[in-house]
Amino acid sequence: MKDHLGFWQGRVEVQAVGSQIEQFINLLHRHRIPLRSLRREEDGRLIFTLPKKDFCRLREPAFKTATRIHILKKRGLFMVLRPFRRRWGLAVGLALFLGLILYSSGFIWQVEVVGCVETSSTQVLADLAELGLEVGCSRHIDVGPIENRYLMGNDKLSWMSINIKGTTAYVEVREQGIHPKVEDLSIPTNIYAARDGVIVSIMDYGGTRQVQVGEPVSAGDLLVSGDWTDKYGVRRLSHCIATVYAATRRETSVTVPLTEEMRIKNEKNRYFFAISCGKFKIPLYFNKKMAYNYDMITKEYPLRIGSFALPIRFIVTKAEGVELQTVTRSPEEAKEIALSQLGFYETDRLSAVTVTDRQITEHLSDTELRLDAIFYCEEEIGMEMPIKE
């Protein structure tokens, strides 16, 4: 506590030199002058610290003992500000800055969205801006109606919470997720083939089979019919539920050129800086044209003090230089790239089926390498369609 008081009141570090230093110290204690950090140097000097307001009280003890005193350092807030006491511009600037901070604390200067997986957070910010919650709006805005209106007009989110802390609005959302499909069993349906194949297995729960295991079918063929006639000759319509697996074939091709122009990054990178205040952007650079192509990467660094976001952002834009270069590949390198693309096709496009075998044919010319791939699969091909009268 005493150190904090010393910072606000001010302290001075004093040097005392004389032949009666011991008597000088006794007089200081007799006058109850507080001393701190008292030490004696090898050359006989006495160095100590005392409050600024007590420095004038050293005059009488120093005069009686013929001791010379000299101020070495001045510490404390007012000691630091004393050289600027006549510079009114600094005081006015500080007052304006504090006033700006106080005024800007009544607005929202940053909106953060968390919880988005399938939904785009950028789209959520744009939709909230249409409802009134955006950068620059009052922090005393009523968020309840905004939450209700947003959820009523959006079928992808099931819950939203907007919390305003300081000048930052934290938006937490929860998505609907995938709901199981509820079938209406009262609607009569047929099962058709979604693609060509050879039937491997059929498991039906209602309706009449139109094909058997081992028969080839084409896309659109009727597999299980829900329109049937009972033993009394009465026509019946039923809802078909069936799982039909077939051996199918998928074909694709990948072409990799042996010579290709590609964008290669070079070391000619440049940085552009800007400051944005609210909705205004102040560039700190001149608009100079660059003699080469480049890719732009922009990052924003908001000025924050805890949850208090200031309306000032530091924007750094990195221009990564790129050049068009002709790349020549060997047939082995082109084949490796083509195989990786086929692997991505199998992982992405054929993730829901079972690949039993694959056949790859290579075609090499003077300009390119082409791989033709045939994937032999087992998959469900049953497609449910309502019966139209």
List the helices and strands and how they pair.
Blueprint: H1 2-9, E1 11-17, H2 21-30, E2 36-40, E3 46-51, H3 59-64, E4 68-75, H4 77-81, H5 88-104, E5 110-114, H6 121-131, H7 143-152, E6 157-165, E7 168-175, E8 189-193, E9 197-204, E10 208-209, E11 216-217, E12 222-225, E13 227-229, E14 235-237, E15 242-257, E16 259-265, E17 270-277, E18 280-283, E19 293-305, E20 308-328, H8 331-349, E21 354-364, E22 368-380, E23 382-386
Parallel strand pairs: 5-7
Antiparallel strand pairs: 1-3, 1-4, 2-3, 6-7, 8-12, 8-23, 9-11, 9-15, 10-12, 13-14, 15-22, 16-20, 17-18, 17-20, 19-20, 21-22
What is the helix content?
Answer: 10-25%
Sheet with most strands: strand arrangement: 11-9-15-22-21
Indicate the low-confidence ranges by residue numbers: none
**How would you classify the quaternary structure?**
single chain
Question: Main beta sheet: strand number and arrangement?
Answer: 5 strands, antiparallel
Kindly report the average pLDDT value: 84
CATH architecture of the largest domain: 2-Layer Sandwich
DSSP summary, beta strand count: 23
Task: Give me the Rg, rounded.
Answer: 41 Å
Portion in strands: 35-45%
Q: Which fold does the CATH topology of the largest domain refer to? A: Alpha-Beta Plaits
Brief rundown of the structure:
The chain has 389 residues and is an alpha+beta fold. The protein has helices at 2-9, 21-30, 59-64, 77-81, 88-104, 121-131, 143-152, 331-349, and strands at 11-17, 36-40, 46-51, 68-75, 110-114, 157-165, 168-175, 189-193, 197-204, 208-209, 216-217, 222-225, 227-229, 235-237, 242-257, 259-265, 270-277, 280-283, 293-305, 308-328, 354-364, 368-380, 382-386.
